[in-house]
Amino acid sequence: MKKTLVLLLLTLSTTVLFSQDRDQPFIQQQTDPTNMGNDGRPNMGDTNVNFEGEKPHISEYKIISFERDTSFVDTTLSIKKDYKYNYLRRDSYHLMPFANVGQTYNTLAHSFDDLRLKPRLGARARHFNYMEIEDINYFHVPTPLSELYFKTAFEQGQQLDAFFTINTSEQFNFSVAYKGLRSLGNYQNTLTSTGNFRFTTNYKTHNNRYNLRAHIVFQDLLNNENGGVKTDFIPFFINDEADFRDRGRLEVNFEDANNMLKGKRFHLEHDYALIDYRDSTAYSILKLGNILSFEDKFYEYSQENPFEEFGPAYASQNLKDRVTLEEFYAQAYAGLNNNLVGKLNVFIGYTDFNYGYDRVLFLNEETITNRILGTIIETGASYQKKYRGFELFGKAAINIAGEYDGNYLLGQASYELNEHNKAKASIHVSSVAPDYNFQLYQSDYVNYNWQTNFKNIKRQHLQFDLESKKLFNAAVSYTGIDDYAYFSQTTTDTTTTPFQLDERVNYLKVEASRQFDFGNFSLNTQLTYQKIVDGKEVFKAPEILGRASVYYSNRFFKNALFLQTGFTGKYFTSYEMNAYDPVLAEFYVQNEQEFGDFPLIDFFVNAKISQTRIYIKWEHFNSLFASENNYFSAPGHPYRDWKIRFGLVWNFFM
């Protein structure tokens, strides 16, 4: 990993000599309706660019998502870019970060947009920065392109994300990237050290009939764990005792533990057009394709000495829990794209999985197996069409054989009311088994061993969206969940245990956002209302969550410098925030303490010079004026104090 990072930095440094100015506004591509991928969305073939001598336009530097939607490299500076300038490199409005960058996040608002037929590894608190197949982008560029992201961290560390891509010809592209972090943190034993290496490639033939894309990913995410600040020392933090303003002096529950998530993945997609007929009035395309994917990952928790509150342990020292998951997936699909019929895709898939441990456990006359392994065969279809002004999309799949039952159905319909307003309705119904760590878990801690027979989690999700340029953007969603699986602690001990709710969870979420501009001043707002109608004992969220940014924008020095400066505030009402368990790397339900009802206010100065965006932020500066420190990310885990951080994002065009 380290050698790869050095090579990337050397490559990026040489591109400075060849950098060009392509400061153009972001433009969204209008995709070709005849260009279809395996999921009924545009294919990679629609990437014709100018490879001849003249200077390319920035719109020719294309980014192709997993869903095969195409956008362009965006070198502009905006408030939305500021929201995404963080460790995850995406808007973290719905999340509450822990004190050190690279640690986990508590969830403030829930989303239900994933389509799955099988369980996941678990350790979900470690997965926020784990790049899934859907997170990998592909590229098509007329000249070599690189990007360097840098941001300071907390005590003896920094963040870096370096990226390079090149088309060796119009048909072939590859990219290589490495995202690394090391941050010691202000509290004892909270060091984070993570790395995400990505390699992608895509290829098409001259006639666009054969298309291929693939990626390789290696990831390791290490976090030292301390179990939170000791209960006796929490008042010293809340009352802002002068002797403990150095957070390293606050005693924590332990200083000898860490957990790690590590994985590698090899992924390939390719298709061939058996029929490719197009003329000025009609088109008809028939494609056959194949997907192959292999992923090997493990989660490990290690600790030198047992912690009493986790219960008795089998070993007196050097505890280590390690669970692995190997998964191979193959899919064959056929897709028809016709100007009359629409886009129809059918597929059949095969999964071979192997989850578990290296030992069988005999516990209190109960045998806990070491493995969950088997196969799954699935089939499904998707359909997309424009009909009388409506944009229709549907997708459904079901497991027809194998170890697990599972199914999902997604339906969407959108309609452009006029040039300023667009409405969309979605329905999502699914049934999937709980994650593997709910079903089987083994540990050197006696009470962290179980084997369950949980039912599938059934979910029904209905959502309405409004996009309005003159009013506001809004989304109203209702989610019902049957047999909801969660972690909690019993009243008799402090051991986290899996449970399944017999009752139904009913969850309502309403969100609205709007940007107001007054000359050079702007106000960007977002508000979320959440109501847990049923199941509030185990399903947690604050009733109100909001964010607002007030800022000033202008150009200086003959337009050479674009500046944005202002304040961003975030707030959520008090609620029974989920607690964090480092052994499982999972959050669990607690009903004893409420947290929230405190503002998080940042002051920022952002600037753009040529292709460089510079970010300076005084994070949580209002903590200086608080009468008491009541800000927590989870029970026992205080949120970060004020900190001035800076960094940049720099694009190079050769």
Describe what you observe in this structure.
With 654 residues, the protein is mostly beta strands. Helices cover 4% and strands 52% of the residues. The strands form 8 sheets. It has a 22-stranded antiparallel β-barrel. Strands 2-1-5 form a 3-stranded antiparallel beta sheet, with no helix packed on it. A two-stranded antiparallel sheet has the order 3-4. The longest helix is centred in the first third of the chain and has 14 residues, at 2-15. The chain is globular and about 75 Å long. The protein starts with a helix and ends with a strand. The model is unreliable at 1-47 (pLDDT under 50).
Concise structural overview:
With 654 residues, the chain is mainly beta.
Q: Keyphrases for this structure?
A:
654 residues; mainly beta; 22-stranded antiparallel beta barrel; three-stranded antiparallel beta sheet; 4 helices; 4% helix
Per DSSP E runs of 2 or more residues, the count of β-strands stands at 37
How would you sum up the major sheet? 22 strands, antiparallel, barrel
The radius of gyration is 26 Å
**Helix share bin:** under 10%
Unreliable parts: 1-47
Strand percentage lies at over 45%
Helix/sheet category? mainly beta
Average pLDDT number: 91
Distance from first to last alpha carbon? 26 Å
**Number of helical segments with 4 or more residues:** 4
Oligomer: single chain
> What is the approximate shape?
globular
